[in-house]
Design brief:
- The protein is an alpha/beta fold and 225 residues long.
- Helices cover 40% and strands 12% of the residues.
- It is built from 8 helices and 6 strands, in the order H-H-E-E-H-H-E-H-E-H-E-E-H-H.
- It has a 6-stranded mixed β-sheet.
- Helix 1 packs antiparallel against helix 5 and helix 4 crosses helix 8.
- The longest helix has 17 residues.
- The radius of gyration is 16 Å and the shape is globular.
Length: 225
């Protein structure tokens, strides 16, 4: 077993945040009607993708009936439909949709992780829950040695990425970069891009359009060359 596989196994068995453990397991037991016949994952979601990838995506957390059901981030929900379509169009995924872990999705030159690995109630994380999950992100950063572009999906994901890379000694800044859609910052050999999260709250209201999300990943592709 390599170091990334060991880390992923450790993440899946994590029970550090009692509130999140109770919620993810409650959702997995009670389910929703449209998925009543399915067995929910109900555990933390490990990161996944190309371990040699140069693009890192940092999101918020798994969705209650998305990643918490399927066991893979952005899989089986509307946010994932938006994200994988954009990644596919930019050449970072082999297919534009993902509905379950065994559907054949493969990321190319890209790795996906999150600020927190458990689905939170109302998609709201507590500060201590973010801190509890931070060591996993730091270890991923050390293992993913080829990263050159980092996309933060949503303000929380963007700030988590910045904080983790600075804590890891990879970047430094005197003033925290401002969040804004497709805002871009360069720190040495790293480029950070902030993006609105492809949540239904953003996509249904038109705050985030397909063209806007495409722009994030065409920018990432351009920076990678």
């Amino acid at each position: 077993m390599n170091s990334m596989e060991a880390l992923q196994r450790e993440i899946v068995s994590c029970r550090r945040c009692h509130r999140l453990v109770r919620w993810r397991e409650k959702v997995a037991r009670e389910k929703v009607r449209r998925f009543a016949d399915q067995e929910y994952w109900g555990k933390p979601n490990p990161g996944f993708g190309d371990p040699r990838g140069r693009l890192l995506l940092v999101g918020l957390a798994p969705a209650a009936h998305g990643g918490n059901r399927t066991g893979r981030m952005f899989t089986g929900d509307e946010s994932g439909n938006w994200l994988y379509r954009a990644l596919y169009k930019a050449g970072f995924a082999n297919q534009p949709t993902s509905i379950h872990r065994g559907d054949g999705l493969k990321l190319k030159d890209c790795y996906i992780t999150a600020t927190c690995r458990c689905a939170p109630p109302q998609n709201k994380l507590l500060p201590e829950e973010i801190l509890h999950c931070r060591p996993y992100l730091l270890r991923e950063i050390e293992l993913l040695r080829n990263i050159r572009v980092v996309v933060g999906l949503g303000r929380v994901g963007f700030e988590a990425a910045l904080g983790a890379f600075r804590e890891a000694g990879k970047i430094s800044f005197a003033r925290k970069p401002s969040f804004g859609h497709c805002a871009e910052y360069t720190f040495g050999s790293y480029t950070f891009i902030s993006s609105y999260h492809p949540s239904q709250q953003n996509t249904f209201t038109g705050k985030l359009t397909e063209r806007m999300l495409d722009r994030v990943f065409t920018t990432a592709r351009t920076r990678l060359g």
